[in-house]
Amino acid sequence: MFIGHFAPALVAATHKDAPSLPVLFIGAQLVDWAFFGFVLLGIEQFRLVPGFSEVSSMDLFHMPYTHSLVGSAAFAAGFGALLFAITRNRMTAIIGAAVVLSHWFLDLLVHMPDLTIAGGEPKLGFGLWDHAIIVMPLELGITLAALHIYAMKTGGWRVPIAGLGVILLALQATDWLGEKPAEVGPSMIFLAWFGYAVATLAAWWAARGSSNVSKANLA
Predict the structure, then answer these.
(1) Which pLDDT score, from 0 to 100, does residue 213 have?
(2) How many structural domains are present in the chain?
(3) pLDDT tens digits along 125-150
(4) 213 in a domain, yes or no?
(5) How far is CA 207 from CA 26, 70, 138, 162, 191, in A?
(6) Cβ neighbours of 96 (radius 10 Å)
(7) CA-CA to 213 of 20 to 30 Å: which in 31, 56, 99, 184?
(8) DSSP string, 94-155
(9) Facing residues of 45 across strands?
(10) Nearest-angstrom CA–CA distance, 134 and 53
(11) Threshold 0.85, pTM exceeds
């Protein structure tokens, strides 16, 4: 899952005590930011296997720290603690942590069995990546539904929110339909980080001028 991970961030951002939307976008993909960093450092690993699943060639065979439930919870706790240290608002911290943790449960729906509870067996994943006819509409549907909720709760559809939607759809289309990398390497990792950064900048743009949400928390 890619842009679907931003759906919880979009919904959570409508709460009056939520961190700003771009902060929540960082939280939504925090474990993937970390995963690719760990891959660069040789701590976690994956390989590209053409045809591994219908929508992804990534065999994520070793990611015990970022994509175990315990590891994801640790990232969530750390993110929440940072938010609390900055804002002194407990609800802000809880919302941010929940968005980080949502990543693991959304991955559980789509990943082939490669997620873990604490880094070892059993490997978990419902494998919707191997059913494109299900996972593609699912990912687009939850993202666009969440974007609509965000728009309706923050003053209605505006050009920046529509722009965020277009950018997210373009990023997802590139992921699904673009040329696939031939091998795992720094260029692939930096490209993934670039995609997350573009989405986060678009979220910052969309959040500007929003009404009915708090502007106090890391706006």
Answers:
(1) 55
(2) 1
(3) 999 999 999 999 999 999 999 999 99
(4) no
(5) 14, 31, 25, 11, 24
(6) 31
(7) 31
(8) HHHHHHHHHHHHHHHHHS-S-BBSSSSSPPB---GGG-HHHHHHHHHHHHHHHHHHHHHHTT
(9) 62
(10) 13
(11) yes
